[in-house]
Design goal:
Two copies of one chain form a homodimer.
Chain A: H1 21-28, E1 32-36, E2 39-42, H2 44-63, E3 66-68, E4 74-76, H3 77-82, E5 93-95, E6 101-104, H4 109-117, E7 128-137, E8 152-162, H5 165-185, E9 192-198, E10 205-212, E11 218-222, E12 228-231, E13 251-265, H6 269-272, E14 275-277, E15 283-285, E16 287-294, H7 295-305, E17 307-308, E18 311-312, E19 323-327, H8 332-346, E20 353-356, H9 363-373, E21 377-381, H10 383-387, E22 390-395, E23 401-405, H11 409-417
Parallel strand pairs in A: 3-7, 9-12, 19-20, 19-21
Antiparallel strand pairs in A: 1-2, 4-6, 5-6, 7-8, 8-16, 9-10, 10-13, 11-12, 11-13, 13-16, 14-15, 17-18, 21-22, 22-23
């Protein structure tokens, strides 16, 4: 894409009330715009990142057999009364002109359970899992962490259905692995830890995936040996020791919850009477699990981890583009050379280029914006590089620059992107 | 995908209150589920169709330079007060716990205009266009037409920004062409007509794209010579004649509005003070256009047009799968042959296969479901076809069947799909 055609501009200041690093950088660099507290528009650059995260999650969900659906945001009151959750205070409620009561979904157990009931009869219909990537709403009183705590936010929610707890347990472990893959692909492998959390009334424990960063809203107790953690809610109950190795020297870390998984068991099957007939002809409740990842929150977490003073440093898999091509100077020769590179690459699906073709913008401004936007590779075409029939390449996360002959450019870029 | 693993099942009856063909067929065939009036869940088959429609629209919007964003559904009251549309009765309104007033967006002029204002300074920043594919909400009193009239519905809304009316006019014509391409790709070419409609207070006329079907909610006056139409609102004003050739013999047709385009001109630039500085240094209001397509409605319209007594007949481009592979009979040889074909095709991106591998389902039931679901090609493997080392192929929209040798199958399928 040509930067001159992008309707947004980088370099704006973030509103003063935005204290979080992710919101400041994402707004300054033109990835998101704030409509009101906890409610953001994804601008073209941010939308590209969101779609990359969405596709990573979709691939991994499909890989563990998830069937994708799309459920509504608008829910009827009756469904939430069945589970005694209509009074949940963070749920937005509204009335239609005809007087009907609705809520806006912040989760979808109340919708998926009666839906699935229409199709499940026998043990032969089990197990299966269903997911969606869909907008949720939550009436947060304080949304001060940018994309980390949204009032409106995209979420992937997966629900699984089983004939017994053992099968639920096996799938639960599968999802755990899948989640680690997702976070690793998004660039959060080193910083993300499985964390024991309270299971509520229906299960002893659930698990969170916590990404350690100084700016996290949560606090976790991490065992440096086992690389697993315990969250604040249950650290007393666990006697301040690692549940795996009983190590008492846990490290207290700030962290962001990027995902969570629950064994719901019969919590929702019971009120909706979701049952199946087993091989012996006996009716039993279906065992359920649920598994969430907030897409915006994940994007915010990536920025909290991957940035420096100058701006964002996107991991390749979620970067809006692979290469930021900058033409410096107004000469026709420079423009033609840069344009030719850009056009060559437009055909190349493996390399996505943002081409800063803007006239009347200084080299200093272009460099500063490239650092702020944070595309993994910067490629500069100038009078100086063209003298060598070359382009100057720099990785966003390294200081060193390198002159690469134009004829070798594609090979070199592919090499660097795959490092 | 293996049909045995699909958590939904075809063949259920649609609720009695569903009178529309699209809702009846889509529900019976397992594409959508009704949560309440005007609010549907897209089940795995329906979700695939929705994504295909979405991708067609996205490709065509990108092709006319649209930049994709994602705006929120939750809107602050202030924005709607600026345009005196806060009282719009079909808009859902709600309050946060903190007492803030929100509405749920049924369109996004009130959001995009102030957003764009943050970036537009000079005529050099114009023109551009921005779109999103996003869920809208509308408090409909009577939602009785299935996907044709949703309370919650996915919509593509494109907004364009120009320095003068002539440029807006040129882009408007470009969008017209793009819309016809979209409807043609979705299989509605022959039935869809440009229709003059009231422009409201800000423009003489707007245009609708109306798909003619006996079950449409609208009525249009079609000129059989010019192939353009006039809608009911303005037929008096147009003196019951074709605005192009003055033909008075217009045909009255029932139709579904599948898209609409408006020249907004300054209607929203004025209240939000969206201006730019022209080449002579003079401040002027930005000229705007807006262009909508409802995705669910388009899907519903496709079904209204493409069905017969037995079920849906999906046009290839929006079909959930390309081939419905049926194995008939319980023999091991049959299963292995069908499985091998299915596995071969899983690798082949150009051919998507739904494999009806279910045991204990009669041939009659499988045939009936295949007709109901409406995938363009049916491929049957049975003891009889295997005797000839062949598969029996049938197009959903033709009666004749054809035996094709397994070794020629891929070529034949690709040929038939591209006919």
């Amino acid at each position: 894409m040509k930067q001159s055609q992008l309707f947004t501009k980088a370099g704006k200041e973030a509103p003063k009330e935005e204290k979080s690093i992710n919101a400041q950088l994402l707004m300054r660099a033109g990835f998101v715009d704030k409509l009101m507290a906890g409610v953001y528009t994804y601008l073209p650059l941010g939308f590209r990142v969101l779609k990359k995260i969405e596709n990573i999650i979709r691939e991994e969900m499909n890989d563990i057999g998830g069937q994708e659906v799309l459920m509504p945001a608008l829910h009827p009151k009756e469904n939430w009364q069945k589970t005694n959750r209509w009074q949940y205070e963070e749920m937005f409620k509204l009335k239609s002109r005809a007087g009907k009561d609705f809520s806006l979904g912040w989760t979808h157990e109340e919708i998926i359970t009666p839906l699935v009931k229409k199709f499940v009869r026998s043990y032969k219909d089990l197990p299966f899992s269903v997911y969606q990537i869909q907008d949720k709403f939550r009436d947060e009183l304080r949304s001060k962490s940018g994309l980390l705590r949204g009032v409106e936010f995209a979420m992937k929610d997966l629900y699984s259905f089983h004939s017994d707890e053992a099968d639920l347990g096996r799938y639960y472990e599968k999802v755990k692995k899948s989640y680690f893959k997702i976070f690793a692909r998004c660039g959060l492998k080193k910083e993300t830890f499985l964390t024991l959390a309270s299971g509520g009334s229906f299960s002893q424990y659930s698990h969170e995936f916590q990404t350690v960063t100084p700016f996290g809203e949560d606090e976790i107790y991490l065992c440096p040996k086992c690389k697993i953690a315990v969250n604040k809610e249950i650290i007393e109950k666990e006697k301040h020791q690692c549940p795996q190795c009983q190590n008492k020297k846990l490290e207290i870390k700030k962290a962001i919850e990027v995902g969570n998984i629950f064994k719901l068991k019969e919590k929702f099957s019971q009120p909706f009477n979701l049952t199946f007939v087993d091989a012996k002809g006996k009716s039993k409740p279906v065992q359920m699990g649920c598994y969430g990842i907030g897409l915006g929150r994940l994007m915010g977490a990536v920025v909290e981890i991957w940035h420096d003073k100058k701006g964002i440093i996107w991991p390749k898999a979620v970067a809006p583009f692979d290469v930021h091509l900058l033409s410096l100077g107004e000469g026709k020769e420079i423009k033609n050379a840069a344009k030719k590179i850009y056009q060559d690459y437009r055909q190349e699906e493996k390399i996505e280029v943002l081409y800063d073709d803007r006239a009347g913008v200084t080299a200093g401004e272009k460099f500063a914006e490239a650092d702020l936007i944070g595309i993994p590779l910067r490629a500069v075409v100038s009078a100086r590089t063209l003298k060598e029939e070359a382009v100057e390449i720099k990785k966003r996360n390294e200081e060193k620059v390198k002159l690469v002959k134009i004829k070798n450019l594609k090979r070199e870029i592919l090499k660097l992107l795959n490092e």
